[in-house]
Amino acid sequence: MPCAIAETPRVNRLPRILVVDDDATFRMLAKRALRTADYDVVEASNGELGIQLYGETHPDLVLLDLMLPGIGGLEICSLLRARWGQATAPILMVTANESAEAIEAGYSVGVSDFFSKPVNWRLLIHRVRLNLEARTAMIGLRESQLSLANAQRIAHLGSWTWYVENDEMTWSQESFRILGLRPDQDHAGRETLWSRIHPDDREQAATRMHEAIRDRKGFECEHRILLPDGGVRFVRQQAEVRCDIDGEVSVVHGAIQDITEQTRAVDQIRYLANFDGLTGLSNRRLFRRNLHKAMKRARQRDESIAILFLDLDRFKRINETLGHTAGDQLIQIVAERLQTVIRRGERSRHREDEERSPLARLGGDEFTLLLQGISSPQDAALIAQRVLKALLEPIVVEGHSVTVTTSIGVAIFPGDGDDAETLIRSADTSMYRAKDSGGNRFCFFDDSMNATCERRLTLESQLRCALERDQLDLHFQPKTCLADGAVTGMEALLRWRHPTLGAVPPDEFIPMAEEAGLISPIGDWVLLQACLQNKAWQDSGHARIPVAVNVSTQQFVDGDLCASVRESLQRSGLEARYLELEITESAVVDDEEATVAILHQLKELGVRIALDDFGTGFSSLSYLKRFPLDTLKVDASFVRDLPDDVGAAGIAAAIIAMARVLDLHVVAEGVETERQRSFLHDCGCHDIQGYLVSPAVSGEDFARFLVRQEKQATP
Ligand code: C2E
Ligand code: MG
Ligand code: MG
Question: What is the pLDDT of residue 589?
């Protein structure tokens, strides 16, 4: 096994020459000539002694006789090379036999040079000197290669060269290590390098390389290396390009540095600077930065954002009674619960996402939540409610079950603050208001929002019982014929008589009922009551006219509208033609096919269909053709400005004309004045509905209205 250790250092001593020759005269002459030339000489009279002395004296050059008794010169040469490898001193073979075979045999076993006998001593001295100089140069080169390799290893820095023309690459040892490759087995090709680059970074690296070649300039980029065991290493690549005389890129020299440790250290520093050590949430600093960014974006997009400022109620007492360790545990569990509220259980593994997380711990028991792109303050209220609910479940810390509540202050941008500091202060102030009101609640900074929110919360929680508690009621509004003033129909309009808040308008509670999934039972109730009431009036001798019932979009989607209609008709005994269903365009657009099918089924039952609020939605003319409609209701917004507003007048006239062409019955809504009535009459509108004739009134009042009308009609 050749020994790869470096040559024995020759410090402050004369170059040493080992002379191996059985000829004593030769040895004596050689010694004299060499010593005169300032060389130190060691002599051996045979091969065995020569080998022994080589090991003991570490000569810088060997003067070796080819023909020796015992071990011959060639064998000695082989033995020395085998033992000392590349570090073997140059061997100058002195021989009288300069046959071609002898020369070939000598070089093949590692002879450095040949010299003929009889010896010209002057010439020999020069040969010795040249061989020694060559050796010194070789040692220097090898040492610098070694120290370069060492330096590369220590600095985790590898180098590579890409010969563009034949697409070949050479890599240093350290490059192999960095790429997780074995120098003896893996191919140092461009594909190998490419296959090691992390798939997500490959495009970026390819672009850089491409640009460097195109622009004939160097490049620098950082990317990840995917190791065979799935591990990831971060590297920095720097390269420069060399061009040939035609200006074409011929070679790219590159350096690849393993920067995994630095990257991890930077990550760690960034983490410590931006995240809270206890919970892993963003800290105050990162929260502020995210808030600044969010406000900037909201300004550009004209959007709203909300911040929720949370402070746990009576947390100090938990800390004092159970100790700080328990307090810390509690904070961690609270943080986890808050995470599930905002992420619904899905935790991101990406650093970028974590940095953008809307949740932060400002310190102590204070948390903040940033909500972007909210459509109304109600969205923030909804999240605040979820947070309060998420904390209700008792938390077990150190064997104690504790229930922790929080006070939440909500501030909305724009409105409650134009800059981050003011907005945070507003949220903080409203948090104290929530706390002063007993905690376990949220409070908006703006009082009008609090009132709206409170009303909404009250209504939402009580809507469920409104039906059972008999608080719902139907009012009726007549539709009259423009030609003769006769009552042609009536619209049933829902009313909620709230015990403390008074009459709640349907525009406010119908959307709530839709959201809470309560619209089907309420809608069914309205249908049945309207049918029962109409049948009762008919039975008591009043005119047989249809009652119109408003149908919500949700009733189309969720419930079985046909079954409800059929049941109401059966139970009331009302003929189907005296029931009209008013649908809005929004019921239609979601799923046109399904809606058309349902409408046809309803038509088969014999009920009438009206399109309500026409002109406010998509107002697609194709609906008018495709749907089996009987009536079109012109929305009040076009009627309001009649007849003076030219635009409104044009639209109302056009809708009426179009409906008549399609053979639809046209009803104008919201008619309040005689001038409006007259204009609509001139346009050919069939019926009107509005305060001019009567507002929506209770069932009893409507019955009286009918009586009055009937008396007027009878001369
Ligand atoms: P809508 O179906 O367009 O009903 C007409 C609305 O205009 C009614 O408001 C009515 O009181 C009002 N109105 C009538 N004449 C005039 C007038 O001359 N001037 C003005 N300014 N307004 C007039 P209401 O009762 O507040 O109902 C509002 C909406 O609530 C209804 O609009 C309808 O979409 C919905 N709604 C009412 N009852 C029900 C129901 O039982 N079920 C469903 N799904 N929605 C209902
Ligand atoms: Mg209506
Ligand atoms: Mg309407």
Answer: 64
Of 528, 523, 530, the closest CA to residue 474 belongs to 530
Distance CA 289, CA 306 (A): 15
Do residues 639 and 677 share a domain?
yes
pLDDT of residue 349: 43
Distance 648 CA to ligand 3 centre (A): 16
443 & 582 share domain: no
Whether residue 241 lies inside any domain: the answer is: yes
**Do 538 and 662 have their domain in common?**
yes
Of the three residues 150, 175, 195, the one that is the final residue of a domain is 150
Q: Taking Cα atoms as reference points, which of 425, 434, 429 lies closest to residue 453?
A: 434
Q: Does residue 59 lie in a domain region?
A: yes
Does the C-beta of 227 come closer than 6 Å to ligand 1?
Answer: no
Q: Are residues 126 and 257 located together in one domain of the fold?
A: no
Residue bearing the CA closest to ligand 1, atom 44: 552
Residue ending a domain, choose from 440, 462, 484:
462
pLDDT value of residue 346:
40
Regarding whether 451 and 302 lie in a shared domain, the answer is: yes
Q: Whose CA is nearest to atom 15 of ligand 1?
A: 690
Q: How far apart are CA 307 and CA 423, in angstroms?
A: 8
pLDDT at 344: 53
Question: How buried is 103 (Cβ within 10 angstroms: 0-12 exposed, 13-18 middle, 19+ buried)?
Answer: middle
The reported pLDDT for the residue numbered 1 is: 37
Q: Which domain holds residue 642?
A: 467-713
Which residues are placed with Cβ below 5 angstroms of ligand 3, an ion?
612-613, 669
Domain count for the chain:
4
CB neighbour list of residue 355: distance below 8 Å, 6 or more residues apart = 274, 282, 286, 290
Query: What is the CATH number for 402?
Result: 3.30.70.270
Distance between CA atoms of residues 354 and 287, nearest Å: 11
What averages of pLDDT result for each successive group of 10 residues across the chain (715 residues)? 43 87 94 95 95 95 92 93 89 86 89 90 93 90 86 86 87 89 78 87 89 87 90 92 88 92 88 90 93 94 94 88 90 93 55 72 93 88 91 88 92 91 93 90 84 78 84 95 94 92 88 83 95 96 95 81 95 96 78 84 95 77 83 93 90 92 94 96 96 96 92 72
Same domain, yes or no: 488 and 435? no
Q: Please identify, by atom number, the ligand 1 atom nearest to the C-alpha of residue 672.
A: 18
The reported pLDDT for the residue numbered 228 is 85
Q: Whose CA is nearest to atom 33 of ligand 1?
A: 550
Q: What pLDDT is stored for residue 448 in this prediction?
A: 79
Q: Which residues in 25-156 belong to E strands, given as ranges? A: 40-44, 61-65, 91-95, 113-116
Ligand 2 centroid to 111 CA: how many Å?
Answer: 112
- 348 half-sphere exposure, CB direction, 13 A CA radius: 13
> How much distance in Å is there from the Cα of 564 to the middle of ligand 3?
22
Pair (504, 415) in one structural domain: no
Mark whether 199 and 223 lie in a shared domain: yes
